[in-house]
Write a structure and sequence with these properties.
Number of helices: 8
Distance between the termini: 34 Å
Strand order of the largest sheet: 2-1-3-4-5
Structural class: alpha/beta
Number of strands: 11
Helix content: 40-55%
Radius of gyration: 18 Å
Shape: elongated
Length: 223
């Protein structure tokens, strides 16, 4: 599970990263609203932890922009603002839960798990064209045909199917699938895209993974 933390208090953000990583979550932290929105729009996160009082763009605006792009990732809003009007504004902006500072780490972790359980009960597959990606079995399904994916094939396909017709750069795929500290290069992305194209063809999928120079990859569906 991938979690994005948008929090300008770097000490708090880094402590949240450590706590969530110790529970097995993949986490990233950004420290202003504009960067947070840019990261959230990648559509690769299972949960967003969002502060309200942020430089460049406040959390209410970030949440509204995320929802306006039909990004359905759960948003856990963290803030020192505890008035009922602030909570209502946060929920109306698109937050799923509102947690005030200071908070107990156990309470935050319980909220994270509850939101992820709710998401998991609703979404266990992604679909594009005539093809589905089963998130539990890491399999591509098309009619009666199915094929299992390797761990990295699955992650690449999950990111592409989540983004749909929006471009995902090779740099983004390298970061999300191989990690910041990996020695992987763009050729690795190209190889896995090639593997996926062959597997899609083998099950009769009408999905095409299109490459656009300098922009990356996106999905298209044969008419």
């Amino acid at each position: 599970m991938n979690i994005l933390i948008i929090e300008d208090d770097r000490t708090l953000a880094d402590s949240l990263k450590l706590m969530l990583a110790s529970k097995g979550f993949e986490t990233e932290a950004v420290y202003d609203g504009e960067s947070g929105e840019d990261y959230a729009m990648l559509n690769v996160y299972d949960l967003i932890i969002l502060d309200i009082m942020l430089p460049k763009q406040n959390g209410y605006t970030v949440a509204r922009h995320i929802r306006s792009k039909h990004n359905s990732a759960p948003i856990l809003m963290l803030t020192a603002k505890s008035d009922i009007e602030d909570k209502v504004q946060g929920l109306n902006a698109g937050a799923d839960y509102y947690l005030t500072k200071p908070f107990d780490a156990r309470e935050l972790l319980a909220c994270v798990n509850a939101l992820l359980r709710r998401q998991g009960s609703q979404i266990n597959e992604l679909a594009f064209g005539n093809t589905r990606l089963d998130l539990d079995s890491a399999s591509l399904l098309c009619g009666e045909n199915s094929i299992r994916l390797s761990a990295r094939e699955f992650e690449v396909m999950r990111i592409l199917m989540t983004a749909g017709e929006r471009h995902i750069s090779k740099e983004t795929l390298l970061t999300k699938v191989w990690g910041y500290e990996s020695n992987a290069v763009e050729n690795h992305v190209e190889a896995y895209v090639s593997f996926l194209r062959k597997k899609l063809a083998s099950i009769g999928s009408d999905i095409r993974i299109e490459a656009v120079r300098r922009l990356g990859y996106h999905l298209e569906c044969d008419a």
